[in-house]
Amino acid sequence: MAGPRILYLHGFCSSPASWKARLLGERLAAAGLGDRFLCPQLSPVPRTALASIEAMLASAEGPTTLVGSSLGGYYASWLAEKHDLRAVLINPAVMAPELLAGLLGTQTNFHTAETFEFTREHVEQLRALDTPLVTPARYLLLVETGDEVLDYRQAVKRYSGSRQIVLAGGDHSFTRFPEQVPQIIEFCGL
After folding, report:
1. What tens digit of pLDDT does each residue of 177-190 get?
2. Which UniProt keywords apply (predicted)?
3. What's the CA gap between 139 and 85, in Å, rounded?
């Protein structure tokens, strides 16, 4: 059986080129664990994104821990509960359908400059992923109180009882991510 691995799920309009994904991948590579890190480009269509993630999970040869940022955290929570996995959630979009309903129309990926139409159908696909109950022991929650996009208190409440690191200040990008990489790697069993 292969060793543990990390499957990183980026946020809305993001990509594997996000600074957090790159940094985590680089740190793992420097420790000789580069082959244990996966960060796919997720489709902007929720149903398609989840199908590709579930295919990756099905082909896993060892235990997988999800690391999800923003919308990736919303996906990670649903997947963790469905597939009995652990997950690190970084400024997760706890109320993703409500948040993203305000972003209907043409969107541009921050890294690739590709455009896509975000529709009501996509919001409904997100709504179908609502996970009313979570298992606190599965999660490591990382939030910054200065997140300008999401109210960090929603995540603190939703994941009550989980291991939580709540840092004052910062922003939605989670500015102190580099400091938290050792805790993430430890939580993921690497």
Report:
1. 999 999 999 999 98
2. Hydrolase
3. 9
